[in-house]
Protein backbone atom coordinates (compact mmCIF):
# COMPACT_ATOMS: atom_id res chain seq x y z
CA UNK A 1 0.00 0.00 0.00
CA UNK A 2 1.42 3.37 -1.01
CA UNK A 3 2.06 5.94 1.72
CA UNK A 4 0.29 9.24 1.12
CA UNK A 5 2.03 12.34 2.45
CA UNK A 6 -0.13 14.84 4.37
CA UNK A 7 1.70 17.58 2.45
CA UNK A 8 0.27 16.24 -0.80
CA UNK A 9 -3.30 16.92 0.42
CA UNK A 10 -2.51 20.30 1.99
CA UNK A 11 -1.08 22.01 -1.09
CA UNK A 12 -3.06 23.60 -3.89
CA UNK A 13 -2.47 22.45 -7.45
CA UNK A 14 -0.86 25.79 -8.28
CA UNK A 15 1.76 25.40 -5.54
CA UNK A 16 2.38 21.82 -6.61
CA UNK A 17 3.08 23.04 -10.14
CA UNK A 18 5.55 25.59 -8.76
CA UNK A 19 7.35 22.80 -6.90
CA UNK A 20 7.47 20.60 -10.00
CA UNK A 21 8.67 23.39 -12.31
CA UNK A 22 11.36 24.40 -9.83
CA UNK A 23 12.73 20.86 -9.43
CA UNK A 24 12.62 20.24 -13.20
CA UNK A 25 14.49 23.49 -13.90
CA UNK A 26 17.23 22.57 -11.45
CA UNK A 27 17.50 19.10 -12.98
CA UNK A 28 17.87 20.62 -16.45
CA UNK A 29 20.74 22.85 -15.32
CA UNK A 30 22.95 20.04 -13.96
CA UNK A 31 23.67 18.07 -17.18
CA UNK A 32 24.06 21.33 -19.10
CA UNK A 33 26.91 22.44 -16.87
CA UNK A 34 28.68 19.07 -17.35
CA UNK A 35 28.46 18.99 -21.13
CA UNK A 36 28.99 22.73 -21.31
CA UNK A 37 32.28 22.45 -19.47
CA UNK A 38 33.36 19.64 -21.79
CA UNK A 39 32.68 21.71 -24.93
CA UNK A 40 34.43 24.70 -23.38
CA UNK A 41 37.63 22.94 -22.25
CA UNK A 42 39.78 23.96 -25.26
CA UNK A 43 38.76 27.61 -24.94
CA UNK A 44 39.18 27.52 -21.14
CA UNK A 45 42.69 26.10 -21.46
CA UNK A 46 43.81 28.71 -23.96
CA UNK A 47 41.93 31.58 -22.32
CA UNK A 48 43.34 30.91 -18.84
CA UNK A 49 46.71 29.56 -20.02
CA UNK A 50 46.22 26.35 -18.02
CA UNK A 51 47.80 22.89 -18.16
CA UNK A 52 45.81 19.83 -19.20
CA UNK A 53 45.76 18.48 -15.63
CA UNK A 54 44.44 21.71 -14.13
CA UNK A 55 41.88 22.01 -16.95
CA UNK A 56 40.68 18.46 -16.27
CA UNK A 57 39.72 19.57 -12.78
CA UNK A 58 37.03 21.78 -14.35
CA UNK A 59 35.16 18.55 -15.11
CA UNK A 60 36.58 16.24 -12.45
CA UNK A 61 36.08 18.61 -9.49
CA UNK A 62 32.40 18.95 -10.32
CA UNK A 63 31.79 15.23 -10.93
CA UNK A 64 33.85 14.04 -7.97
CA UNK A 65 32.10 16.35 -5.51
CA UNK A 66 28.72 15.52 -7.01
CA UNK A 67 29.32 11.79 -6.53
CA UNK A 68 30.97 12.16 -3.13
CA UNK A 69 28.23 14.31 -1.61
CA UNK A 70 25.17 12.73 -3.26
CA UNK A 71 24.59 10.14 -0.54
CA UNK A 72 25.50 12.55 2.29
CA UNK A 73 23.09 15.19 1.03
CA UNK A 74 20.30 12.60 1.01
CA UNK A 75 20.95 11.91 4.68
CA UNK A 76 21.10 15.65 5.44
CA UNK A 77 17.71 16.12 3.75
CA UNK A 78 16.21 13.74 6.30
CA UNK A 79 17.92 15.50 9.22
CA UNK A 80 17.71 19.18 8.25
CA UNK A 81 14.63 19.08 6.05
CA UNK A 82 14.19 18.61 2.30
CA UNK A 83 13.38 22.26 1.55
CA UNK A 84 16.52 23.55 3.28
CA UNK A 85 18.79 21.11 1.50
CA UNK A 86 17.19 21.75 -1.89
CA UNK A 87 17.32 25.55 -1.62
CA UNK A 88 20.78 25.48 -0.07
CA UNK A 89 22.05 23.27 -2.88
CA UNK A 90 20.45 25.37 -5.62
CA UNK A 91 21.78 28.55 -4.03
CA UNK A 92 25.29 27.13 -3.78
CA UNK A 93 25.12 25.93 -7.39
CA UNK A 94 23.98 29.41 -8.49
CA UNK A 95 26.75 31.21 -6.58
CA UNK A 96 29.41 28.75 -7.75
CA UNK A 97 28.24 29.05 -11.34
CA UNK A 98 28.46 32.84 -11.19
CA UNK A 99 31.96 32.56 -9.72
CA UNK A 100 32.94 30.13 -12.50
CA UNK A 101 31.71 32.58 -15.13
CA UNK A 102 33.80 35.37 -13.58
CA UNK A 103 36.85 33.26 -12.67
CA UNK A 104 40.11 35.16 -13.32
CA UNK A 105 42.25 32.00 -13.28
CA UNK A 106 42.10 28.23 -13.41
CA UNK A 107 42.43 27.71 -9.63
CA UNK A 108 39.36 29.83 -8.91
CA UNK A 109 37.48 28.05 -11.68
CA UNK A 110 38.40 24.59 -10.36
CA UNK A 111 37.41 25.53 -6.80
CA UNK A 112 34.09 26.99 -7.91
CA UNK A 113 33.35 23.85 -9.93
CA UNK A 114 33.88 21.72 -6.82
CA UNK A 115 31.38 23.89 -4.94
CA UNK A 116 28.94 23.59 -7.84
CA UNK A 117 29.16 19.79 -7.62
CA UNK A 118 28.28 19.88 -3.92
CA UNK A 119 25.36 22.20 -4.63
CA UNK A 120 24.08 20.01 -7.47
CA UNK A 121 24.18 16.91 -5.24
CA UNK A 122 22.17 18.64 -2.52
CA UNK A 123 19.63 20.11 -4.94
CA UNK A 124 19.10 16.83 -6.79
CA UNK A 125 18.54 14.72 -3.67
CA UNK A 126 16.50 17.41 -1.94
CA UNK A 127 14.41 17.99 -5.05
CA UNK A 128 13.56 14.35 -5.65
CA UNK A 129 12.68 13.96 -1.95
CA UNK A 130 10.36 16.97 -2.16
CA UNK A 131 8.56 15.51 -5.19
CA UNK A 132 7.97 12.31 -3.25
CA UNK A 133 6.49 14.32 -0.38
CA UNK A 134 4.37 16.77 -2.38
CA UNK A 135 2.85 14.32 -4.87
CA UNK A 136 1.12 11.00 -4.32
CA UNK A 137 -0.51 8.26 -6.39
CA UNK A 138 -0.49 8.66 -10.20
CA UNK A 139 0.63 12.29 -9.86
CA UNK A 140 3.83 11.14 -8.14
CA UNK A 141 4.54 8.70 -10.97
CA UNK A 142 3.99 11.47 -13.54
CA UNK A 143 6.24 13.86 -11.62
CA UNK A 144 9.12 11.39 -11.49
CA UNK A 145 8.53 10.48 -15.13
CA UNK A 146 8.92 14.15 -16.02
CA UNK A 147 12.06 14.30 -13.87
CA UNK A 148 13.64 11.41 -15.79
CA UNK A 149 12.61 12.91 -19.13
CA UNK A 150 14.13 16.30 -18.32
CA UNK A 151 17.35 14.73 -17.05
CA UNK A 152 17.63 12.63 -20.21
CA UNK A 153 16.84 15.58 -22.46
CA UNK A 154 19.43 17.72 -20.70
CA UNK A 155 22.07 15.05 -21.26
CA UNK A 156 21.03 14.46 -24.88
CA UNK A 157 20.79 18.05 -26.05
CA UNK A 158 23.21 19.63 -23.60
CA UNK A 159 26.22 19.34 -25.94
CA UNK A 160 24.37 21.10 -28.75
CA UNK A 161 23.13 23.91 -26.51
CA UNK A 162 26.53 24.28 -24.87
CA UNK A 163 28.29 24.37 -28.22
CA UNK A 164 26.03 27.17 -29.40
CA UNK A 165 26.64 29.08 -26.17
CA UNK A 166 30.41 28.81 -26.62
CA UNK A 167 30.15 29.94 -30.24
CA UNK A 168 27.87 32.89 -29.49
CA UNK A 169 29.02 34.12 -26.09
CA UNK A 170 32.27 32.36 -25.15
CA UNK A 171 33.10 29.69 -22.59
CA UNK A 172 31.95 31.71 -19.58
CA UNK A 173 28.36 31.50 -20.82
CA UNK A 174 28.19 27.75 -20.18
CA UNK A 175 28.52 28.50 -16.46
CA UNK A 176 26.53 31.73 -16.38
CA UNK A 177 23.37 30.32 -17.99
CA UNK A 178 22.95 27.34 -15.61
CA UNK A 179 23.69 29.73 -12.71
CA UNK A 180 20.86 32.00 -13.88
CA UNK A 181 18.52 29.00 -14.08
CA UNK A 182 19.50 27.99 -10.53
CA UNK A 183 18.83 31.56 -9.37
CA UNK A 184 15.29 31.32 -10.74
CA UNK A 185 14.93 27.97 -8.95
CA UNK A 186 15.85 29.58 -5.62
CA UNK A 187 13.23 32.29 -6.10
CA UNK A 188 10.57 29.70 -6.92
CA UNK A 189 11.70 27.60 -3.97
CA UNK A 190 10.63 30.36 -1.58
CA UNK A 191 7.04 29.24 -2.26
CA UNK A 192 7.77 25.64 -1.23
CA UNK A 193 5.94 24.23 1.79
CA UNK A 194 7.86 23.82 5.07
CA UNK A 195 9.63 20.46 5.29
CA UNK A 196 11.14 19.79 8.73
CA UNK A 197 13.66 17.06 9.34
CA UNK A 198 12.84 13.70 10.84
CA UNK A 199 13.12 13.87 14.66
CA UNK A 200 15.91 11.70 16.02
CA UNK A 201 17.45 11.00 12.60
CA UNK A 202 21.26 11.17 12.58
CA UNK A 203 23.91 11.39 9.89
CA UNK A 204 26.55 8.68 9.55
CA UNK A 205 29.43 11.14 9.60
CA UNK A 206 32.09 8.44 9.78
CA UNK A 207 30.82 6.67 6.68
CA UNK A 208 30.31 9.95 4.84
CA UNK A 209 33.82 11.16 5.68
CA UNK A 210 35.52 7.93 4.66
CA UNK A 211 33.58 7.59 1.38
CA UNK A 212 34.16 11.21 0.42
CA UNK A 213 37.85 11.09 1.35
CA UNK A 214 38.50 7.85 -0.55
CA UNK A 215 36.78 9.06 -3.73
CA UNK A 216 38.30 12.56 -3.79
CA UNK A 217 41.81 11.23 -3.12
CA UNK A 218 41.45 8.59 -5.84
CA UNK A 219 40.41 11.26 -8.35
CA UNK A 220 43.38 13.39 -7.22
CA UNK A 221 45.77 10.50 -7.88
CA UNK A 222 44.38 9.92 -11.37
CA UNK A 223 44.38 13.59 -12.36
CA UNK A 224 47.71 14.66 -10.85
CA UNK A 225 49.63 11.41 -11.42
CA UNK A 226 50.52 11.93 -15.11
CA UNK A 227 51.92 15.42 -14.47
CA UNK A 228 53.60 14.97 -11.06
CA UNK A 229 54.49 11.28 -11.44
CA UNK A 230 52.61 8.43 -9.80
CA UNK A 231 55.66 7.75 -7.63
CA UNK A 232 55.96 11.32 -6.36
CA UNK A 233 55.39 11.70 -2.59
CA UNK A 234 52.16 13.76 -2.83
CA UNK A 235 50.52 11.39 -5.33
CA UNK A 236 51.77 8.26 -3.59
CA UNK A 237 50.60 9.60 -0.23
CA UNK A 238 47.16 10.36 -1.66
CA UNK A 239 46.95 6.82 -3.07
CA UNK A 240 47.82 5.26 0.29
CA UNK A 241 45.35 7.49 2.13
CA UNK A 242 42.61 6.63 -0.38
CA UNK A 243 43.27 2.90 0.11
CA UNK A 244 43.17 3.25 3.89
CA UNK A 245 39.88 5.19 3.79
CA UNK A 246 38.34 2.62 1.43
CA UNK A 247 39.45 -0.24 3.70
CA UNK A 248 37.99 1.43 6.79
CA UNK A 249 34.64 2.21 5.14
CA UNK A 250 33.10 -1.30 5.46
CA UNK A 251 34.18 -1.46 9.11
CA UNK A 252 32.61 1.90 9.88
CA UNK A 253 29.38 1.03 8.06
CA UNK A 254 29.11 -2.29 9.90
CA UNK A 255 29.21 -0.47 13.25
CA UNK A 256 26.96 2.47 12.31
CA UNK A 257 23.45 2.52 13.75
CA UNK A 258 22.12 4.02 10.48
CA UNK A 259 24.80 3.31 7.84
CA UNK A 260 25.12 5.70 4.92
CA UNK A 261 25.70 2.81 2.49
CA UNK A 262 24.09 -0.61 2.89
CA UNK A 263 27.20 -2.47 1.67
CA UNK A 264 25.86 -5.99 2.51
CA UNK A 265 23.52 -5.52 -0.48
CA UNK A 266 26.55 -6.12 -2.70
CA UNK A 267 26.46 -9.75 -1.55
CA UNK A 268 23.23 -10.09 -3.54
CA UNK A 269 24.50 -11.44 -6.86
CA UNK A 270 21.66 -10.06 -8.98
CA UNK A 271 21.84 -6.62 -7.40
CA UNK A 272 25.61 -6.56 -7.88
CA UNK A 273 25.26 -7.64 -11.51
CA UNK A 274 22.81 -4.87 -12.39
CA UNK A 275 24.83 -2.24 -10.50
CA UNK A 276 27.99 -3.37 -12.31
CA UNK A 277 26.23 -3.19 -15.68
CA UNK A 278 24.96 0.33 -14.98
CA UNK A 279 28.41 1.43 -13.86
CA UNK A 280 30.05 -0.09 -16.95
CA UNK A 281 27.66 1.59 -19.38
CA UNK A 282 28.10 5.00 -17.75
CA UNK A 283 31.87 4.48 -17.55
CA UNK A 284 31.87 4.23 -21.35
CA UNK A 285 29.32 6.92 -22.22
CA UNK A 286 30.23 9.79 -19.89
CA UNK A 287 34.03 9.92 -20.46
CA UNK A 288 33.36 10.03 -24.20
CA UNK A 289 30.91 12.89 -23.68
CA UNK A 290 33.60 14.71 -21.71
CA UNK A 291 36.66 14.23 -23.93
CA UNK A 292 35.29 13.76 -27.45
CA UNK A 293 34.33 17.45 -27.75
CA UNK A 294 37.95 18.48 -27.16
CA UNK A 295 39.14 15.99 -29.79
CA UNK A 296 36.53 17.08 -32.33
CA UNK A 297 37.45 20.74 -31.81
CA UNK A 298 41.27 20.45 -31.53
CA UNK A 299 41.95 17.62 -34.01
CA UNK A 300 39.01 17.35 -36.41
CA UNK A 301 38.80 21.15 -36.50
CA UNK A 302 35.12 21.70 -35.66
CA UNK A 303 33.63 24.77 -34.08
CA UNK A 304 32.10 24.07 -30.62
CA UNK A 305 28.56 24.39 -31.93
CA UNK A 306 29.17 21.91 -34.72
CA UNK A 307 30.95 19.50 -32.35
CA UNK A 308 27.87 19.62 -30.10
CA UNK A 309 25.66 18.84 -33.09
CA UNK A 310 27.79 15.81 -34.02
CA UNK A 311 27.42 14.50 -30.47
CA UNK A 312 23.66 14.23 -30.99
CA UNK A 313 24.45 10.92 -32.72
CA UNK A 314 25.78 9.75 -29.36
CA UNK A 315 23.18 11.27 -27.04
CA UNK A 316 19.83 11.05 -28.87
CA UNK A 317 19.68 7.22 -28.58
CA UNK A 318 19.90 7.58 -24.79
CA UNK A 319 16.45 9.26 -24.77
CA UNK A 320 14.95 7.64 -27.88
CA UNK A 321 15.40 3.97 -26.96
CA UNK A 322 14.17 3.41 -23.36
CA UNK A 323 10.74 2.31 -24.66
CA UNK A 324 12.44 -0.20 -26.97
CA UNK A 325 14.47 -1.48 -24.04
CA UNK A 326 11.33 -1.92 -21.95
CA UNK A 327 9.72 -3.95 -24.74
CA UNK A 328 12.80 -6.14 -25.10
CA UNK A 329 12.97 -6.72 -21.35
CA UNK A 330 9.45 -8.19 -21.47
CA UNK A 331 10.42 -10.68 -24.15
CA UNK A 332 14.01 -11.58 -23.27
CA UNK A 333 15.71 -12.76 -20.07
CA UNK A 334 17.16 -9.91 -18.03
CA UNK A 335 20.69 -11.23 -18.49
CA UNK A 336 20.41 -11.15 -22.28
CA UNK A 337 19.09 -7.59 -22.38
CA UNK A 338 21.57 -6.20 -19.86
CA UNK A 339 24.64 -8.02 -21.15
CA UNK A 340 23.74 -7.09 -24.72
CA UNK A 341 23.49 -3.43 -23.80
CA UNK A 342 26.91 -3.47 -22.11
CA UNK A 343 28.42 -5.13 -25.20
CA UNK A 344 26.76 -2.57 -27.49
CA UNK A 345 28.33 0.29 -25.57
CA UNK A 346 31.73 -1.39 -25.45
CA UNK A 347 31.61 -2.34 -29.12
CA UNK A 348 30.76 1.20 -30.13
CA UNK A 349 33.65 2.53 -28.05
CA UNK A 350 36.07 0.06 -29.64
CA UNK A 351 34.96 1.15 -33.12
CA UNK A 352 36.10 4.68 -32.26
CA UNK A 353 39.65 3.37 -32.65
CA UNK A 354 39.10 4.05 -36.34
CA UNK A 355 38.42 7.79 -36.03
CA UNK A 356 40.90 10.41 -37.07
CA UNK A 357 41.34 14.02 -38.24
CA UNK A 358 39.37 13.25 -41.41
CA UNK A 359 36.38 11.74 -39.57
CA UNK A 360 32.92 12.67 -40.79
CA UNK A 361 29.46 12.27 -39.28
CA UNK A 362 28.95 9.24 -41.52
CA UNK A 363 32.07 7.46 -40.25
CA UNK A 364 31.22 8.20 -36.63
CA UNK A 365 27.51 7.39 -36.84
CA UNK A 366 27.82 3.66 -36.07
CA UNK A 367 30.17 3.89 -33.07
CA UNK A 368 28.33 6.89 -31.59
CA UNK A 369 24.91 5.27 -32.05
CA UNK A 370 26.04 1.97 -30.52
CA UNK A 371 27.41 3.64 -27.39
CA UNK A 372 24.23 5.66 -27.00
CA UNK A 373 22.04 2.63 -27.69
CA UNK A 374 23.62 0.66 -24.87
CA UNK A 375 22.67 3.43 -22.44
CA UNK A 376 19.27 4.09 -23.97
CA UNK A 377 18.09 0.48 -23.98
CA UNK A 378 18.76 0.14 -20.25
CA UNK A 379 17.75 3.63 -19.10
CA UNK A 380 15.34 3.00 -16.25
CA UNK A 381 15.29 -0.78 -16.73
CA UNK A 382 18.45 -1.39 -14.73
CA UNK A 383 17.13 0.67 -11.84
CA UNK A 384 13.98 -1.42 -11.70
CA UNK A 385 15.84 -4.73 -12.00
CA UNK A 386 18.31 -3.81 -9.28
CA UNK A 387 15.73 -2.55 -6.80
CA UNK A 388 13.42 -5.46 -7.62
CA UNK A 389 16.15 -7.94 -6.73
CA UNK A 390 16.04 -7.03 -3.02
CA UNK A 391 13.36 -7.23 -0.35
CA UNK A 392 10.74 -4.44 -0.53
CA UNK A 393 11.72 -3.04 2.86
CA UNK A 394 15.26 -2.39 1.54
CA UNK A 395 14.19 -0.73 -1.71
CA UNK A 396 15.18 2.77 -0.58
CA UNK A 397 18.68 1.83 0.55
CA UNK A 398 19.11 -0.30 -2.58
CA UNK A 399 18.25 2.69 -4.78
CA UNK A 400 20.78 4.84 -2.94
CA UNK A 401 23.58 2.28 -3.22
CA UNK A 402 22.75 1.56 -6.88
CA UNK A 403 23.01 5.24 -7.84
CA UNK A 404 26.19 5.59 -5.80
CA UNK A 405 27.82 2.72 -7.71
CA UNK A 406 26.72 4.13 -11.06
CA UNK A 407 27.80 7.72 -10.42
CA UNK A 408 31.06 6.72 -8.73
CA UNK A 409 31.91 4.48 -11.69
CA UNK A 410 31.45 7.24 -14.23
CA UNK A 411 33.37 9.73 -12.07
CA UNK A 412 36.37 7.42 -11.67
CA UNK A 413 36.22 6.55 -15.39
CA UNK A 414 36.34 10.23 -16.38
CA UNK A 415 39.44 10.75 -14.24
CA UNK A 416 41.08 7.53 -15.49
CA UNK A 417 40.50 8.40 -19.15
CA UNK A 418 41.87 11.89 -18.51
CA UNK A 419 44.96 10.36 -16.89
CA UNK A 420 45.57 8.13 -19.91
CA UNK A 421 45.14 11.02 -22.34
CA UNK A 422 47.44 13.27 -20.31
CA UNK A 423 50.12 10.56 -20.05
CA UNK A 424 50.03 9.68 -23.77
CA UNK A 425 49.85 13.21 -25.14
CA UNK A 426 52.23 14.95 -22.76
CA UNK A 427 49.45 17.21 -21.57
CA UNK A 428 48.27 18.44 -24.98
CA UNK A 429 45.24 16.79 -26.55
CA UNK A 430 46.04 17.95 -30.06
CA UNK A 431 47.99 16.86 -33.12
CA UNK A 432 48.73 13.32 -34.26
CA UNK A 433 49.49 12.16 -30.72
CA UNK A 434 45.91 12.92 -29.69
CA UNK A 435 44.52 10.51 -32.27
CA UNK A 436 46.71 7.66 -31.03
CA UNK A 437 45.76 8.43 -27.44
CA UNK A 438 42.04 8.44 -28.26
CA UNK A 439 42.46 5.11 -30.07
CA UNK A 440 44.02 3.66 -26.92
CA UNK A 441 41.18 4.99 -24.78
CA UNK A 442 38.57 3.63 -27.19
CA UNK A 443 40.06 0.12 -27.14
CA UNK A 444 40.49 0.23 -23.35
CA UNK A 445 36.84 1.23 -22.84
CA UNK A 446 35.73 -1.53 -25.19
CA UNK A 447 37.83 -4.12 -23.36
CA UNK A 448 36.59 -2.95 -19.94
CA UNK A 449 32.98 -3.23 -21.11
CA UNK A 450 33.63 -6.76 -22.41
CA UNK A 451 35.07 -7.80 -19.03
CA UNK A 452 32.06 -6.24 -17.28
CA UNK A 453 29.69 -8.14 -19.58
CA UNK A 454 31.39 -11.44 -18.68
CA UNK A 455 31.13 -10.63 -14.96
CA UNK A 456 27.44 -9.75 -15.32
CA UNK A 457 26.79 -13.03 -17.11
CA UNK A 458 28.55 -15.03 -14.39
CA UNK A 459 26.73 -13.22 -11.58
CA UNK A 460 23.33 -13.77 -13.21
CA UNK A 461 23.96 -17.47 -13.88
CA UNK A 462 21.76 -19.60 -11.59
CA UNK A 463 23.62 -21.42 -8.87
CA UNK A 464 23.53 -25.21 -8.98
Automatic annotation (TrEMBL):
InterPro entries: MFS, MFS_dom, MFS_trans_sf, Tet-R_TetA/multi-R_MdtG-like. Keywords: Membrane, Transmembrane, Transmembrane helix. The chain crosses the membrane at residues 18-41, 61-80, 85-108, 114-131, 143-165, 171-193, 205-223, 235-252, 272-297, 309-329, 336-356, 368-391, 412-431, 437-460. It is found in: Cell membrane. It is a multi-pass membrane protein. Pfam families: MFS_1. Residues 19-464 form the Major facilitator superfamily (MFS) profile domain. This is MFS transporter.
